[in-house]
Amino acid sequence: DAGVIQSPRHEVTEMGQEVTLRCKPISGHNSLFWYRQTMMRGLELLIYFNNNVPIDDSGMPEDRFSAKMPNASFSTLKIQPSEPRDSAVYFCASSLGTGDIQYFGAGTRLSVL
Amino acid sequence: GESVGLHLPTLSVQEGDNSIINCAYSNSASDYFIWYKQESGKGPQFIIDIRSNMDKRQGQRVTVLLNKTVKHLSLQIAATQPGDSAVYFCAENDKIIFGKGTRLHILP
User: For B47, which residue in chain A has the nearest alpha carbon?
Assistant: First the structure.
């Protein structure tokens, strides 16, 4: 199994541009999580899905952030418009169920100039 | 200048010594606990887990102890190696929020 796959690994963009981060969870996993990690705030849960349905998006910072999971094998996290304070490493993780061991992708390092 | 950032508890251990990383949890009804290790530049990775019907569980060089009375977990790493240098997180199964973590620093 290839594990959780995130793309791109690195993204550099200018303020105001739209950014789309992608995640392919482990096949057979029913839960998918998006996290953001910064030096200032540590690892923060943004949103998670169960069976492709968003369960808790209370961690999404503001309306500029949106996440979708159109099917069991793909999820996106979109930031529009992006701002310099969105610069962080964004992780996707998947698990069999919500309370089970999470398997993390390698992350996407986002820099907004 | 002033250092700004998330203050992580840090444990500095001599290479070859044993390390003990502690974690307090909040929900007495939690019945499953997981330890993760995050190395620099990588996502957190599962190390070991324990269910509430156990007090101790051993893996390869790692042991997790659970004290339900005081809602406390500890992760013990035997004969600490440079590769153990990382941030360690504990998680309760009913919470998906990771805490700050503890940074383990290995002294040569």
Answer: A101
